[in-house]
Design goal:
Blueprint (H helix, E strand, L loop, with lengths): L5 E4 L2 E4 H17 L3 H12 L3 H26 L9 H24 L4 H21 L9 H18 L3 H11 L4 H25 L9 H21 L2 H25 L1
Antiparallel strand pairs: 1-2
Length: 262
């Protein structure tokens, strides 16, 4: 395990290296609506941490930062989460779908080979990236059916593999007629709300969960929120759309490469 430069503050162990890592991973996630867990989890595993030390802490940091980032995007005018607004309704629908998607994922996890599942996730994320980039100048009519469908698919992906939520939700919203800047803010709030169930499960679990990484990850992720909010506010919609499409395409390609070559 590499040196994490730990220091104890008020009885809590803080790791400088993890704060920096979480900062940059969340900066990407809150700016483009994807990439936090997808990037952070494998890095922490390579460093030497086990799943029970990583997953609950990543979920907790996503819960706190996702909700915080969503509210920050609202205050900056990147999205509108006032009561009764269409953006708040979309975020709540996406979060509600997570319960259904997770239930389906648990059932199918017992019957679907992991190779098929990872291939499916890679293909769907790659496909969204390609479609977004090929239709940059096309405006889509808003569709609740598409929003609900992508919410189920995204939560299914997260329930089965721990990833694939942000790319599907952010990219899918654009293909469902949601503005790119709005899609990022909605994804932040929806993913934060989605993580509530996962955190509760770990809290009440009889398994001994290691929460030692949580303080550092939360601090680093929260520090990135003002910067990501500013980036989304200043980036033109088309530029943001290109960035989202490109990152989605890259994540899909990397997923497929990992499936067949590692």
């Amino acid at each position: 395990m590499i040196e994490l430069f730990g220091v104890e503050i008020l009885g809590v162990q803080i790791f400088l290296a993890l704060i920096i890592l979480a900062f940059f991973c969340e900066l990407i996630d809150s700016s483009l609506g994807m990439g936090y867990g997808t990037t952070l989890t494998p890095i922490l595993m390579i460093v030497g941490f086990g799943p029970l030390a990583i997953v609950p802490c990543v979920l907790l940091s996503e819960l706190i930062t996702g909700i915080t980032a969503g509210l920050a995007h609202h205050r900056a005018g990147n999205v509108n989460f006032k009561r009764g607004s269409i953006h708040l309704k979309i975020a709540l629908v996406l979060a509600a779908c997570s319960i259904i998607g997770a239930a389906i994922a648990v059932f199918l996890a017992l019957n679907i080979p992991k190779l098929w599942l990872k291939t499916y996730i890679g293909l769907i994320v790659l496909g969204m990236g390609i479609v977004i980039l090929l239709t940059l100048n096309k405006d889509y009519k808003f569709s609740w059916k598409k929003i609900t469908g992508l919410g189920l698919i995204a939560s299914f992906n997260k329930g089965m593999s721990g990833g694939g939520y942000g790319p599907v939700v952010t990219g899918g919203q654009i293909l469902s007629g949601v503005n790119g800047n709005n899609a990022v803010g909605i994804t932040s709030l929806a993913e934060g709300l989605t993580c509530i169930v996962g955190v509760i499960v770990f809290v009440v679990s009889p398994e001994a969960v290691n929460w030692s990484l949580a303080p550092s990850l939360v601090i680093g992720a929260l520090l990135s929120v003002p910067f990501s909010t500013f980036i989304v506010k200043k980036l033109p919609t088309k530029t943001l759309k290109i960035a989202i499409g490109t990152l989605t395409l890259i994540l899909g390609t990397v997923t497929l490469i990992k499936v067949f070559y590692f």
